[in-house]
Write a structure and sequence with these properties.
Elements (H helix, E strand, L loop, with lengths): L9 E4 L10 E5 L7 H4 L10 E5 L3 E2 L5 E2 L3 E4 L3 E4 L1 H21 L7 E6 L1 H12 L6 E5 L21 E7 L7 H4 L1 H8 L3 E7 L7 H14 L1
Helix pairs in contact: 2-3
Length: about 220
């Protein structure tokens, strides 16, 4: 498949479906990584999915990309650029529309798969615009309510499904942050699964096979 010059750099694994618009899964990588990272999962995911792995818009030195800046200030501690995160939230939303139109994908069957910062952005897109997203797989991240659209609690979440997981010894994002996610999702009456694994900031095989089965059941 020839890549179109869209607003965000990306790579694609085409769907096996040829007689109708296929469902699509967008991959959003973590801080300091790139579109090749999560794409290693693509060959193991359902063949009917078109898989598009997206590169975050902000380059980091000496390499890698980010959805928003994270500053490590010894005096102030670690802080995130929420304005940049909101900008990326909207860039992702625009890219989804572009990609679905350009590659003739089913706009009613969109899944987001994120890791770490990509999970934070996946939650931001889905909770702000649930009419756009069917499924979210959020790995090693959490919900940052500061980057959600104003009034998001009034949204209709009826058709949104979320799988989220976290490592019990995650040294990058504390598990206490992740444990708030199912509380928020329950409060919003969103269909969800939350799992913990004996791992750090990464995806172990048990985690992969669990979300793969969940995804297959939701397609």
């Amino acid at each position: 498949m020839t890549l179109a010059p869209l607003s965000l750099e990306h790579i694609i694994k085409p769907s096996s479906v040829t007689d109708k618009k296929p469902a699509v899964l967008f991959m959003l990588h973590g801080y300091g990584s790139n579109e090749e990272d999560l794409f290693s999962f693509a060959q193991e995911l359902p063949k009917e999915l078109c898989i598009i792995s997206v590169r975050a818009p902000y380059p980091l030195q000496p390499f890698g990309y980010a959805w928003y800046a994270i500053n490590f200030d010894e005096g102030k501690g670690k802080w995130s650029d929420d304005n940049q995160a909101i900008s990326s939230r909207d860039k992702i939303l625009a890219f989804i529309d572009e990609a679905c139109a350009t590659y003739h994908l089913d706009e009613s069957k969109i899944t987001l798969l994120g890791f770490s910062q990509g999970t934070i952005l996946s939650f931001a897109v889905a909770l702000s615009y649930p009419e756009k997203i069917k499924n979210v797989i959020g790995l090693s991240g959490y919900i940052n309510e500061r980057i959600l659209k104003d009034g998001y609690r009034n949204n209709d979440f009826t058709n949104l499904h979320i799988y989220t997981s976290h490592g019990q010894v995650d040294q990058v994002i504390p598990i206490e942050w992740a444990e708030k996610t199912p509380e928020i999702l329950s409060d919003l009456n969103i269909d969800h699964v939350y799992e913990e694994f004996p791992s750090g900031h990464g995806v172990i095989p048990q985690n992969f096979y669990s979300f793969k089965k969940w995804l297959s059941d939701k397609l």
